[in-house]
Amino acid sequence: MDAGLTGNRARPDVAVPARTGSAHGTGWNLRSAAAADIEAVAELRATVMRADLERLGRYDEHRVRQRLRDSFSTRHTSIVMIDHELVGCVTVRPSEGRQWLEHFYLAPHCQGRGLGSAVLRTVLERTDAQGTTVALNVLRGSGARRLYERHGFVVEAQDPIDVFMARPPSRAGGPARHELDRGPGRRMPGE
Within 10 Å of residue 62's Cβ, how many Cβ atoms? Predict the structure, then answer.
């Protein structure tokens, strides 16, 4: 994998390269996660997921944080920074021949401004270069599903709580394969 940067040290095992981008004029970058980030990310997860988990009757103040702590991986997680402030995170973990997009959270004050799309494009550029399918699950009824659909994810399965989605790698920076195969006016399952 390409190296992400932490200070001046390269981290060859980081899933998403460090990168500076712009979301409607907001400079941001990704840095490798550190063990010291875990509590800030656990709090971010609790804040971001609370409304959807409450709507589904699944919010538990302790469990929402503990699930993050139990699966936090500095090796596969990148922290979204704006002006030296942790405003989000994203985990891209290899499993079962795919890359799993997990723990993609942005602070509420950063949502709806194009930052989520910018970060997701960065992740997808990397997985496209590897020729890898990306999979994820999103809570039923979550507004985040629209973001994923705009970036080529389609529904593979769902249960009463989660919607499981996947996106094949795109060809040479073009649309994802399913966009090429569907033809004009045709809808894919889950659209």
Answer: 8
